[in-house]
Each structure stands twice: as C-alpha cells, then as structure tokens.
Amino acid sequence: MEIAWAAGLFDGEGSVLIHRSAKGYIAELKVDMVGGGEETIARLTRALGGHARWYSRRDGSRVHRWRAHGVACAPIVEALLPHSTTKEAELRLLARFLASHRPGAYTDAERAACASLKDELEALRCSTKRKGSSSRPKS
Q1: Which of 40, 60, 81, 117 is in the most buried spot, having the most CB atoms within 10 Å?
Q2: What ranges in 59-103 are assigned the alpha helix state H?
Q3: How far apart are CA 81 and CA 109, in angstroms?
C-alpha cells in the first residue's frame, strides 16, 4: 500500500534525472515540497529509502527534499514502475540507464550511450510537460 502511495506522490511531484558530472553520469530521483511537506517526505523515505533533508530558499521558504541517486535508484525504480502512470516512461528509461551503466572510467562508446540516454530523458520530460500543460483548460 505504501509503495502505491509513494508512486502516486512521485508521479505528481517527482523528477527523474541523469546528471553529467566530472566522474561521469549519475541517476537521480527526487521530490521537492515547499512549505509543509516534512511529514510527507518522511513517509516517502520510510516507503522507498533514499535520503530526506531540507533547505531554505533565499526568500525564506523551506523546501523538504527526498532524493536517491546512483545505484540506490535501481530498487526504487523497480518498486515504483508497477504503480506509476505519468512517470512510467521516464522510469523505464532510467531503468535502461541503470542496467547499462557502470561507475568508473568510460569508453567513448559508453560515454556516448550515457549521453544519448540523458538526451532522450530530457526530451521525454519536455514532451510530458507540454502534454500536461496543453491538456489544462484555458481560462
């Protein structure tokens, strides 16, 4: 039951990311909630693992963040996928990345494959945002 709840929250509020860093490419899942999200983020952490923290923005608002990164994302993606709707395609792409990714030195072909998956994820995220905004009624 908690996993289904977590998947619903993640579908609405979560982000699926692949970052490029000095050490290569890394997977990340995160949920940010402004204001009163402390209990929700704590519940999400209990359900999925990962890490919870908070930080203050310049405007003084408090942001509660849940995050998982690197290989720790693999079991979380596996748990979320059967329950996900809006983030299913992004989670499947991240699962492909995690299955083919290995930490450490990259060959040129591995670097190109990671870059391609990162670009594919960014394009998917952009198309999902456009679909979501175009389906809203105009006022």
Answers
A1: 117
A2: 73-80, 88-100
A3: 28
* Band of residue 105 on the pLDDT scale cut at 50, 70, 90: low
CATH 2.60.40.10 is right for the domain spanning 2-133: no
Question: What pTM was computed for the model?
Answer: 0.85
Of 40, 19, 17, the closest CA to residue 125 belongs to: 17
pLDDT digits (tens, 9 = 90+) for 61-96: 899 999 999 999 999 999 999 999 999 999 999 999
What's the gap between Cα 101 and its chain centre? Answer: 16
Q: Which residues contact 90 (CB under 8 A, 6 or more apart)?
A: 16, 121, 124, 125, 128
Spell out the residues 6+ positions from residue 115 whose beta carbon is closer than 8 angstroms to its own: 20, 25
Distance from the Cα of residue 26 to its chain's centroid: 11
CA distances to 3, 42, 49, 117, 119 from 7, rounded to whole Å, are: 6, 15, 13, 23, 24
Burial class (CB in 10 A: 0-12, 13-18, 19+), 96: middle
- Report the phi/psi class of residue 24: left, alpha or beta, with left for phi > 0 and alpha for psi in -120 to 50: left
